[in-house]
Amino acid sequence: MEYLTLLDYLYVVTFNSRRRAAKSISLFLSRHLTVLNKLHMLKHLSTQTQYPALHKPTHIFMQSLNTVKQLTNVMKTTLSIFILAILIAGCSGGQPAVPPPAPQALQVMSLQGNLQTTYTEYPASIQGAIDLEIRPQVSGILDKILVSEGAAVTKGQPLFKIDERPFKEALNTAKAQLHAAQASVTNAQIEVDKLTPLVKNKVVSDYQLKTATSSYQSALANVEQAKAGVAAANINFGYTLIKAPVSGYVGRLPKKQGSIVSPTDPIALTQLSDAHEVHVYFALGEDDFNAFNAKYPGNTVNERLKKLPGVSLLLADNTVYGKEGKIDMVDGQFDKQTGSISLRATFPNQQGLLRSGNTGKIRLKLDHDNAITIPQSSTVEVQDKIFVFVVDGSNKVTRTPITISGTTGTNYLVQEGLKSGDRIVFDGIDKLKDGDTIKPEKLKEEPITTASR
What we know:
By secondary structure, the protein is α+β, with helices and mostly antiparallel strands. Helices cover 37% and strands 30% of the residues.
């Protein structure tokens, strides 16, 4: 009876929240307690027979204590088995399988080859047709500055005035020397005329006539020398007024009025640029130059230049200059330092929009037959390689590498990797991985192709 009381107590305390499991454990324990009870009863009877008076209370106490210990061990084992069974049941309990995600609906474009034009751009520098330094030809004081910085001038227009007084006096001196020389000629001529009849009549010797004739010749030479002096003085006097040798635009004016100027000054008075047309210089590498020669046939450079199409000039603000230019010069040799060769294109500039010193880019146009173009946004770049997602007949995508030969607007011009009839994913490629299956959708709008590079 004492065993059942203890079992019920453990049942209530330990398994109140798990009634079903506790009942099973109770049945299990009851079976084992029945056997233990018999064993302890036999032990109790044997001890009581031998020592009836001494062991009766002690036997009852020890029997109860052993029973509690055995119950505790059984409970520990059973609880461990029960908890393990619950864990195994929880882990192995089948949850409903998650269905695979539906294929992504993505726009797909079909590729078709057609005529495309690409533009290759090269950095360029712009120079006027004529760029001059304006320097004084004589030394003196800068008396007047007759133009402003940046002004447009015409050929022959005065620019600067140097103090002319010293040169005017030098011219007067030269003229005076000329008059003196001319007077000496007259005197020598008179002497020759006087001695000529006397020598003819043998009044005087011909030696005197020869001396007079020689003096006359010397006087004539002095006149010529004096004339040259007058001309030189006149030229120097003219140099005091500095005029524009060509039409163009005036540069900066580092010298101010009152400055002493000289032909040997390291800094020029100004620069003058004739920019009614401009020369745009750019360079091609060896590979580009070889491709240039192969694309435009001709036996000589001049023949190839005549067959070249017009070129465009891209300004610093990425706008295209309104007039087309023409390549008219190829340098005679490659630059050893850069490994490139210079070319020149000439552009008209009647409106004066371009100035010497501007920079820009030259665009060379190249047509491609049956070319395939794809949007740059439909590609992904990995380790300097460009990939697209090609859609096969079962709508499975494959990441395919492609080779690019150029650009046209926002599109790539494909050289290798794709062909006409292929389908590629137009957008949403950041959500894809190789081998995914998609739900193709019709392209909503054609990508815009604007010629540029």
